Amino acid sequence: MTDAVDPARLRELGDFLRSRRNRLRPADVGLPSGARRRTPGLRREEVATLAAISPTYLAFLEQGRDVRPSRQVLDALAGALRLGTAERAHLHELVHRAAPPVVASGGETLPPAVAALVDRLDPCPAYVTGRRWDVLAANRAARALWTDWLLLAPDARNMLWWMFTDPAARTVFVEWEQEASAQLARYRSAAARHPGDRGFAELTARLKAASPEVRAWWPRHDIAPLSSGTKRLRHPLLGELEMRHVVLLTADDVEQKLVAFLAADADQARIAELIAAE
């Protein structure tokens, strides 16, 4: 946080906490209803007990005082107030001007509508990657120009793993070194948002063990944002293709990235013929 805190944000924080406390009933948090409740919602003392903080500290927060709670305190309050994901992020943004780091676990599920959209984009190549760049969906055009991820082992269906360990990737990308280093920088930026995700640590270790380039580039600490742009691909039948691409984030999970490509009209026609002949 900065030294100067906007008083309006402090007031907003206090109002937000009070509104969420007032909407809860004792039964919502496993407390007896009791009697003589003069106001709706939970008492301040009850929320403070659930969050393991003092009632006075909670009162200061609700009054908009500049007491600067830590992220751990905010997470405790989010749990006590039964906040949803968006509400928890809003709470952190009011205090720290940034959402909390995401800690994800388990596999990723792609909404069926997104998978259907990817297929409908043929013959424009398109694919969706998850938080660690696992390939969650790819249409026929993408599989024809990159690789057929559906034929790979599940733990190999990852854009970074393919980029750094499959010799074919160095043929597919005309500018492989530029593309690979940028991909690694984007991955590192994502890893910083998921400090508790063991999957990132495991994938990073696998990449370092398998790729001398990853071992050489990782200590540089390069980071890069997601971005649209142009890629140059090489195909054994179509030759070199220059393709513009856009990166779209899904609303249901902003770590899922839909990447769609568009070539020149003549090249798009040849891609269509290629996949039609399969």
From TrEMBL:
For this UniProt entry, the molecular function terms from Gene Ontology, in alphabetical order, are: DNA binding
**HTH cro/C1-type domain: from which residue to which, for each copy?**
41-88
Give the protein's recorded name. Answer: Helix-turn-helix domain-containing protein
Protein source organism: Microbispora catharanthi
